[in-house]
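Need tokens for this chain, all 142 residues.
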Amino acid sequence: MRGIRRLWAASLFPFAIGLTFPTAHAQQPTERSALSVAQALVDAFNDHNPEAMAVLVSPDFELYYFDDDGVARLAIHGPEQLAAEMTAYFSNHPSVQSTIADAVDGPVYTSFREQIVGGQSSLAVYEVREGLIIRVWYYPAE
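Here are the structure tokens for all 142 residues:
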């Protein structure tokens, strides 16, 4: 639990406008980029809204934290556990806010430095498929 709190304290979380492009028959919305989904999670984090965070992750969602020894450890599994952990976290950190910097975006993976306002930052990698966050990896806070 200490590792989870340390990671949340060092992590920052992420909604972008859906774009449409013309097709031969009709306009079809494109899938959001991995970064836009991650930004939606950070936005929900900044709103202190665990339920909004939970709807952005897949039913099999996994959040991993890398320990100082370089081993990734599963910290959260599923949207229900994410919402429960974040509810407790926000009650202990009522003014926490986070930002994203130095992002690299792709169709499935995005990475960025998540910065707690006035605190530490952590490198994050998100895997996003079909508009839902499947896995997140956070590296040790700096």
